[in-house]
Design goal:
- The complex is a heterotrimer of chains A (157), B (73) and C (427).
- With 157 residues, chain A is of the alpha/beta class.
- Chain A has six helices and seven strands, in the order ααβββαβαβαββα.
- By secondary structure, chain C is an all-beta fold.
- Chain C contains no helices and 21 strands.
- The chains are: A alpha/beta (157), B mainly alpha (73), C mainly beta (427).
- At the B-C interface, helix 1 and helix 2 of B face strand 1, strand 2, strand 3, strand 6 and strand 7 of C.
Chain lengths: 157, 73, 427
């Protein structure tokens, strides 16, 4: 069963796919700051996309880490965008009061973007190179992952 | 053998739920994450009740294993 | 460089998920339409660190009308020691006192018995004989360790030890759970082994021998082993519904008889026979093979939650039972809740259960313990809880339990009131 899944994935991946940033990233629309932005707007930056929700406990653990990363590498071109998947906005407001952020928050209450990224766990993060290519994905968050993720960010800056 | 019994288990569950179970997306687990939605919300209550009914009745098992015995019969 | 590590999402029942290992490209257009909010760009502040300690305590009061009363305090402490690793300890003290039915039946004249400790007691005419010297204090310790074994597999290991003046129990258990299907499905396997020593006061009487002060015994330290295995599957049905289905099997081996219980022997006219042999010590088989199938459903309606379960049990003693249990958590707002509870249990007697023996019969096994007979236990209860900050919760519950006998058991009902107070804290 698993072998079949990987086979399909392999076929899809190796088939001719547009890999230009403009074509693919432009299609991902993000709701940030009351505006519709496109992932394409962040071309040239190293984007760390993180899917999270207020009820997810490991997500809370990742926030201080993401704040630290954003502060450290903002000048070098790191852009962290945390995409929220709550269906109730009041819970998000409450959460952000306790966990203020240095990075951008986007909203995806219908889960459409999460669906497109094939998010398998909460939280899930995707590191996207300056040219739009996803270099790495990570599911969940534990303290011991912090070092590895930071190294990955550094090597892609 | 295990796959057959698993198949039977799954069939029974889907029949009892009256629909096919596709589960939920990882981001749709907000309600399931709550303490009151866990299978055992108050482990001490369960432990104390199990002990009472083990002493006063003659059935055991079903929910879990491990726990220890007592001369409470 | 590849980064694909899996870790647990904090929905309690399941652990890890599959990560996509190959880099891939974004495809397909998609539009998102949701409400918006200001991005907060604030100075870094330290969020409160997550609690790692979980303390749970309760005290239970149990009281049967005219019979046994018990007080049982319990404390459990659990600590997170690693990313997904926990250890815990639970200690229980259990103090029982009061009267317990000895298995003999009420007769038209008074009856006198000698308790295992040597004192004597009398049952008036028409009164079910109860041994009033029933007292026991038990201490039980339990240690547990929960740890991930691989990306989707979690292990839960425990040891337990308990001691009371006439009984000791030591055991270990291992539970392994495996999550898959995006953590919507969890398979569980559990195995437990307990080794018990029964140390009856005055020694264990030879079964089906006449009750007497100079009884022959099988010794004072008898062994009993209890082995259990469980297979279960938990399935997320929808955003607000969860189900579990388990099958468990157990094997008991050794001294399974109650050393303090007797049977009355009647003649053909229904009167207690005279002379020695009017009361015989009970005798149960030395093995028991048990099975149970269990189904549970958890469902949330707006804020309220229903927990419903059904269990069917059967064993090779001929005993089988049906248990239905339902709890409905009704949210009152501001963290208060009320939770009514109903439990219905119906048991069909063991093959060797007898209300009394008839003179001349020579069964291989026999017991008049009402807990092996046809019986229905009905419990109604209500719990009140208040959830405060810092993971604090105060709870109080009261339950009324009624056991009525059936089939050949003409004995009286047993009624009990249960009261429990609880307090838990996370820090």
């Amino acid at each position: 069963m698993r072998a079949i899944k990987f086979l399909i994935l392999f076929i899809l991946l190796t088939s001719p796919i547009q890999n230009s940033y403009a074509e693919s990233a432009a299609s991902i629309v993000l709701n940030i700051d009351n505006t519709r932005q496109s992932l394409n707007d962040y071309k040239g930056k190293l984007v760390y996309l993180d899917f999270w929700a207020s009820w997810c406990i490991p997500c809370r653990k990742s926030f201080p880490f993401m704040n630290e990363m954003q502060g450290k590498y903002k000048d070098k071109g790191l852009e962290i965008i945390a995409i929220n998947l709550d269906t109730d906005i009041t819970l998000v407001r409450k959460f952000l009061k306790h966990y203020p952020t240095q990075f951008k928050i986007a909203y995806d209450s219908t889960g459409d973007t999460a669906e497109k990224f094939n998010v398998k766990a909460m939280p899930s993060s995707f590191l996207i190179k300056r040219n739009g290519e996803i270099v790495a994905t990570h599911s969940g968050f534990r303290k011991k992952d912090a070092g590895k993720i930071e190294k990955l960010i550094q090597s892609n800056l | 053998m295990k796959s057959i019994s698993l198949l039977i288990l799954f069939s029974m569950i889907s029949l009892s739920s009256g629909c096919s179970f596709t589960g939920v997306k990882p981001w749709e687990r907000d309600l399931l994450a709550q303490q009151k939605m866990q299978l055992d919300t108050h482990p001490l209550d369960s432990y104390l009740d199990d002990h009472i009914y083990y002493s006063k009745e003659n059935s055991s098992g079903g929910q879990g294993v491990g726990g220890g015995g007592c001369g409470c019969n | 460089m590849q980064l694909s590590k899996n870790s647990m999402s904090k929905s309690k029942m399941t652990s890890q998920s599959v990560s996509i290992k190959k880099p891939r490209f974004i495809r397909n257009a998609l539009s998102i339409a949701t409400s918006t909010m200001l991005a907060s760009v604030a100075p870094v502040s330290h969020a409160a660190s997550d609690p790692t300690w979980d303390v749970d305590s309760a005290i239970l009061f149990y009281s049967e009308t005219d019979r046994v009363t018990a007080v049982e305090p319990v404390v459990k402490v659990r600590k997170q020691i690693g990313d997904d690793e926990y250890v815990g300890v639970r200690i229980v003290a259990d103090s029982l006192s009061g009267s317990s039915a000895n298995g003999a039946i009420a007769t038209s004249s008074a009856q006198t018995f000698t308790s295992p400790s040597g004192s004597s007691y009398t049952a008036a005419a028409g009164e079910t004989p109860l041994d009033p010297s029933f007292h026991d204090t038990r201490i039980a310790l339990n240690g547990e360790w929960e740890t991930p074994l691989s990306k989707a597999i979690k292990g839960f290991f425990s040891v337990n030890a308990s001691s009371e003046y006439d009984y000791e129990s030591y055991g270990v258990a291992a539970n392994i759970s495996w999550d898959f299907n995006n953590r919507n499905t969890t398979l569980l396997t559990g195995l437990a082994y307990n080794n018990d020593t029964v140390k009856p006061v005055g020694g264990a009487p030879t079964g089906l021998n006449a009750m007497s002060a100079s009884k022959t015994t099988q010794g004072s330290n008898l062994n009993k082993t209890v082995t259990d295995i469980l297979f279960g599957v938990t399935q997320v049905i929808s955003r607000n519904t969860l189900m579990q289905f388990n099958y468990s099997h157990g094997e008991d081996d050794g001294y399974l008889t109650d050393p303090y219980k007797i049977l009355s022997v009647l003649d053909n006219s229904g009167n207690l026979i005279t002379g020695a042999g009017q009361y015989l010590y009970e005798k149960r088989p030395t093995t028991r093979s048990r099975n149970a199938v269990y189904w549970k459903m958890v469902h949330q309606f707006s804020e309220d939650v229903l927990h419903f379960s059904y269990r069917y049990y059967w064993d090779d003693w001929g005993l089988n039972s049906n248990t239905i249990d339902a709890r409905y958590r009704y949210e009152l707002g501001s963290g208060h809740y009320l939770q009514p509870h109903v439990r219905y249990y119906q048991q069909n007697q063991a093959d060797f259960y007898h209300y009394n023996l008839v003179d001349g019969s020579t069964p291989q096994y026999a017991s008049a313990d009402y807990r092996l007979g046809d019986m229905t236990t009905t419990t109604f209860g209500i719990k009140y809880g208040i959830v405060l900050d810092k993971g604090q919760e105060f709870t109080a519950r009261v339950e009324s339990m009624n056991q009525s006998m059936g089939g050949s058991n003409q004995g009286p009902d047993v009624d009990a009131i249960i009261l429990q107070l609880g307090y838990s804290l996370k820090f």
